[in-house]
Amino acid sequence: MENSQKGFIPVMLTPFLSNGNIDYPALTQLTEIYLQAGSSGLFANCLSSEMFELSDKERIQAIKHVIKVVDGAVPVVATGTFGGEISKQADFVKEVSDAGVEAVIAITSLLAEENETDEIFNERVFDLLDQTDKIPLGFYECPVPYKRILKPAQLADFVSTGRVIYHKDTCLDLGQIKEKLKLTAGRTFGLYDAYIVHAVESLKAGASGLSCIQGNYFPELIVWLCDHYDDEAFKDEVQMVQQFLIDNMDVMHNVYPVVSKYFLQKRGLNISTFTRRNVGSFTPSIIKEVETLFDDYTLLRNNLNIKVFI
């Protein structure tokens, strides 16, 4: 997923009906919003999608639904490893690949236990590569069940196989990101940073783009940042957007993804705030914070003349 233009890859939500079933009409509308905002790809079946609360059948159905709505407009990646023996994980990787994704994403913390060494992890990665034919893969340093960060040299070894084309980075360390980019330069590979605090610096360092939860509030703002991060004519505005995102980090992470679904309701999307994952109480004080965020974003968006579709 390498591209000279910086791109935004949303980590997709899964809308649910009040009875807990997947709300496919809302998923259609949400997918279209990501596309209309200018996203350069989509990450389906990820932590924001509540992937651990979905059955294998639901995971595949949701991925296929997204791919059908996208209809080839942008590439879609999706998680395909959920623990167990590598042979079992490889089987599901093949199933996800058959759904039509650009790359199947492996969760780093599900390939080795927290107390297992990098050597064991590396062996399992190469085993997974061996057992999944020529399927393009990617990595996601998911914080659940624990966060396993790839060292720059590890990532470089995996990318050098020609099979690993995508990486969603959550190390929160700009120095590590720069080293990862240096060691994977010239490869057909894209590193997408999840940490919005140093978004501009990461893009300037050579990251292919951003893949952050903030896109589940205002995808068009993240696309705008990817388009203008290095534009001298918009230097002040870029700094304003970066600071806005930093200032609202806590609000956007608190009882997520309930808060983002509520925010999308405020925008006009017909989506419930139902989540299968227990993320805590959506209290009146949190609601007030999200409403303030909505008002502040509306003002910022108008100042930047950003077009929105809902």
From TrEMBL:
Domain of life of the organism encoding this protein: Bacteria
Annotated catalytic residues: 140, 168
SMART domains per UniProt: DHDPS
Molecular function via GO: 4-hydroxy-tetrahydrodipicolinate synthase activity
Keywords, sorted A to Z: Lyase
InterPro entries, sorted: Aldolase_TIM, DapA-like
SUPFAM superfamilies found in the cross-reference section: Aldolase (SSF51569)
Matches recorded under Pfam families: DHDPS
Presence of the UniProt keyword Lyase in the record: yes
Family: Belongs to the DapA family.
Name of the protein: Dihydrodipicolinate synthase family protein
Lineage, broadest ranks: Bacteria, Pseudomonadati, Bacteroidota, Sphingobacteriia, Sphingobacteriales
